[in-house]
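Predict the assembly for these two chains.
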Amino acid sequence: MRLNRRSKKACACSLDDCSLEIRNLDVTLNRIRILEDVSFDVRCGEVTAVIGPNGAGKSTLLKAILGVIPYDGCIHFCHRKSHGGGAPRIGYIPQQLNFDRSMPLKVFELFSMASPGARPSFSGVPSPIREKAATALASVKAEHLLDKRVGGLSGGEIQRVLFALAINPLPNILIMDEPISGVDVSGEALIYELIRKMRGNIEMSVIIVSHDLSMVTSYTDHVVCINRRVVCQGAADDILTPKNIEETFGSYIGMYRHHASHDVD
Amino acid sequence: METVITAITTLLGHVLPLSWAEPDFMRRALLAVLLVCPTCAMLGVLVVNRQMTFFSEAISHSAFTGIAIGLLLGMGNPVPAMVGFCLLIGLGVAMVRSRSSLALDSVIGVFFAVSISLGLVIISALQGLARQLPLFLFGDILTVSAGEIVGMALVCAACFAFLWFAFNPLLIYYVSPEVAITRGLRTSLFEYGFAVVLSLVVALSIRVVGMLLITAMLVVPAAAARNIASSAGAHFRISVVIGAVSGVFGLVASYYFNTATGASIILISSVLFFITLAARAIFVR
């Protein structure tokens, strides 16, 4: 995951327990500085929310953590001592899939393709992989989607499939990019339920990028407000003050606060 | 190796007691078609799914410039120059694509423009070369030699081996690059491999259908299969069958109607495309 790190200086953990430490992260793409001196910790067993307006650099932050874009600074995963070394396993749930919906591809084939070393799907998907996919889907109440075409699924169904894919096998870091965008109300409830279940698993840290402030207050332990730099961070109840929200979201405050209060009711 | 090919063509003569299979050149052509058409159809599944038709078009048309360079250098057989130039263009596009934020179609468009205009400049400067071009533009499967069939068999085997390892990663990378990376699937090597295999297959198919129609041979069977397939596995298998069927029927039709073989093969696969399109409209929804 540190393949794209530009500087050579070593990153060390200052915390002992399992955590993801981000220190002085700078990202510049096409000569535009997108993130500036971003530092925060993501602890295992906790759900950390990253909030901020559009264009604040939230998706860029996730891409830097995934290691797909170059960055300066440190992104370091500190293992619990029992874990041993090695790169952490990351489960990533993208906002949506951006592909040609008419592509012939079944859900179980997606699971097979995502398993490194699996036989090519044109030679048939072996039954152990199919069974694993079925079990994974059952954990998000989506076993009926196993034989469906990926292109024919609704936004909520795709989200469930991606969730199942990301948590099997269980990752060290679970990253969700706007998990409830494009999901209907029942799908939303299910995803919140799953996040609630993940919370407290001491082997895993969860990072959620979200617009939904009511979700942030109910389901997260730590909130990081980002607008190119860290505006504020801390426990949700402490930091989601009108002043901080205004500083993070700028003129969009009215809309976001309305959304939040509506959902809480 | 070549004796093996001769033995197979002799055997084909006994197995197929049909008038079109009597001439030796037809039996060799049949063997070539059965190697090349399904291989193109397999690779075409990735081309169609990853929307790389324009990319394969650029590679196949850069064969023209490769041939012009080969003839300019006085090579008796310009095929190595052609493969080399196709590789250069394919790898060039893959590299620029991975390192720049330019939209892919404009990157390909620039490479396409450079290679075609370079080819035209060479051809126009050395007018004597123009006479040798039609063979490469339109292909000539009926003069294929046993040695060339051996080459085709090797390229087919290489292509299948590549797809065995690269098919899954390249498709999931197209569906979601981030998911592919977090699953530990590093695909950048396969992206370059894809350019290499595509260049080799283009060079191989020029003999069969000619440069003008190579993209059609890659794309049409896979597009036809896509109309009726619901899974990636079925897409691949149906595409191979459509490739083989249109290859054989195109060859036989060209024998009886005395038409260009390559174009006949493409016409038959195009007819199959419209049939599957109609089948999709009727049976799916």
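Chain A touches chain B through 38 residues (CB under 8 Å). DSSP finds nine helices and nine strands in chain A.
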